[in-house]
Amino acid sequence: MTGAPTHPQSKWLEAELKYDSRVVGKHEVVMTRGLGATVWDESGRSYIDCVAGYGVANVGHSHPDVVRAIKEQVDRLIVMPQSLPNDKRAEFLSELVSVTPAGLDRVFLCNSGTEAMEAAKKFAITGTGRKRFVSMKRGFSGRSLGALAFTWEPKYREPFGDAVDNRNVDFVTYGNIEELRAAVTSDTAAVILEAVQGEGGVRPATLEFMQEARRITQEKGALLILDEIQTGFCRTGKFFAAEHYGVVPDGMTLAKAMGGGIPIGAFVMTQEVADRMPAGGHGGTFGGNPLAMAAGVATIRAMKREGMAEQAREKGEYFMERLRAIQSPKIREVRGLGLMIGVELKEKSAPYIHALEHDEGVLALQATPLVVRFLPPVTISREQIDAVVAAFERVLNGVNPRAERQAQLAAQAAAGETAQGEAIQTE
Coiled-coil annotation: which residues (predicted)? Predict the structure, then answer.
């Protein structure tokens, strides 16, 4: 979805394509507004958003409580380093700890999931005095040089060669208890684990694997660090995916949905782990800034007040039930947890994701070459879910309603039947 814009009149798209680094592939559309589970492009076309900023907009775009909190905080104070205590930061920490699993009551604040993973790596080393790690095949932990060491997919690591030092990382097959048991030794600082692998194809862990991971790490004196960057904050039908498994880790990496759209990140951990990091051993300029903290307070309170975990559970079950009812030989499996849903196809998913956006006004994601990933805001309505499923079924069956409408209008124009003022809409 890169290359010359299909809307040459768009000065915004032209400017972005001209000056951007081109590291990130671009869709040929300019998004300008969002509300709830709907976003609009510069031409006014609406889209049902099942990307949600890669799982950020759990409370929906421009949630009124978050917008209000940001506006109020901008007028008061935007930045303040963590060395200087702040009222809004203290309020956020209290709110966050009120929803984390018992015992995870110490917090390192940062700005993103990758930063949270970098922090987790350092806290694990100081917390155990060890330097080896165990990560998962098909796992994704971020793209900084430190986090890349835990990321399985070679395409992310290979361009940087030896600069990505994963000599101290052992990768095991996700879900394979015997491999995990063999890999975790007295030299292991931590096991890094996603309760649901997102980039790896939307694959929930089994109950047995998660519980054995907890037991094995405790036996070996290693930490269990759960990556809840995408699964956290009501995405899976619980506040955190760990709750589905009855597992309390030694630490969790958090980000994405925690700030309602504002950049934010955190590593939450036990007091024992936190206390072993030397003073000044880690830090960051913008972590815990009052603006992000205000957004986070409003976001967590909205999630609790509106029962978003339960909403995600109910809507996720409904969404997957509807997807499984699609009659198509192209579908291999529908799987997921809450509103983190993957549809594995028997052929490449990219053309169908493109057709959903281009022809149907539905935004979706890829997760491995075969999987279509749906990560809508928790605020998505059942009517919108029905519309997404109907659109997905049409693209699987090769139906293009926009093309059909264009052909119909063209035929009417040729016959002199086009109503005055009606124009054929083209991409």
Answer: none
6 annotated ligand-binding residue: no
Largest CA distance in the chain: 81
pTM for the full predicted model: 0.90
Q: Is 285 annotated as a binding residue?
A: yes
Q: Quote the CA–CA distance of 5 and 185 in Å, as a whole number.
A: 53
Write the burial class of residue 185 (CB in 10 Å: 0-12 exposed, 13-18 middle, 19+ buried): middle
140 marked as binding residue: yes
Q: Helices 87-99 and 290-305, interaxial angle, to 10°?
A: 40
Is 230 flagged in the annotation as binding?
yes
The predicted-structure confidence for 379-403, as pLDDT tens digits, reads as follows: 999 999 999 999 999 999 996 766 6
Residue by residue, DSSP assigns 336-394 as EETTEEEEEESS-SHHHHHHIIIII-EE-EESSTTEEEE---TT--HHHHHHHHHHHHH
Q: 106-110 and 265-269: which strand pairing?
A: antiparallel
Which residues have a Cβ under 8 Å from the Cβ of 44 and sit 6 or more positions away? Answer: none
228 is in an annotated binding site: yes
